[in-house]
Amino acid sequence: MDLRSFALSASFALFGLSGTAAYSYDSSSPAAQIKTAAPTAAPVGLQVFCLGNAHHCTSSNVSVVEMSQDLMAMLNRVNGSVNRSIRPRVRSTQVWELGARSGDCKDYSLNKRAQLVALGVPAGALRIAIGYTARGEGHAVLVVRTSAGDLVLDNLTNQIKPFHQTGHRLIAISNGDLRKWNTIV
User: Do you know which InterPro entries this protein is assigned to (predicted)?
Assistant: First the structure.
């Protein structure tokens, strides 16, 4: 494992609480997608999760989902529901867990992805990104690649935002297959 991969895996130590605002889709917003660069290793804990749960890590042929008011409403429902259903807990390990009652940002992201796939959102349009909050804390979020741009579902807030408006410094992202990652430009 290279130093960057180790740093990514080791960076998930502290996590905050959820906010309360909801976001509505604005069709006049320009589409902005996260730009990726070199391939990099998936976080170690996610690699372990995918070994035992490959069906939760695979992609689909659809890499962008068409934005609509219905999709935005679904994203808001799932984001808020998962944010309320998981009690925040700092983990000293890199465990990624589905169905957790308590967990950290990795668990929120994984659970949101699973719920959206179950509701019919193509897995190929759902990515997990890791990086740092504005306070420098390691963090993971779910990114939904839409025709209106990449939107972030975050356990720190119920507000869904375009990726460039989160205040986070994202450094790596999965593609639709959670086992395949790239650095972020």
Answer: Transglutaminase-like_Cys_pept
Return mean pLDDT, the chain. 86
* Angle subtended by helix axes 105-118 and 44-52, to nearest 10: 40
Q: Give this prediction's pTM.
A: 0.84
Q: Which residue has the tokens 């490959």?
A: 54
- Tally of CB atoms within 10 A around 7: 12
Q: Which fold has domain 3-15+30-184?
A: C8orf32 fold (3.10.620)
| Letter string b/e over residues 112-138, b meaning 16 or more CB atoms within 10 A of that residue's CB | bbbbbbeeebbbbbbbbbbbebeeebb
- Reported as a single tens digit per residue, the pLDDT across 97-137 is 999 899 999 999 999 999 999 999 999 999 999 999 999 99
DSSP 41: P
Helices (H), 87-172: 105-118
Sign (positive or negative) of CA dihedral 150, 154, 158, 163: negative
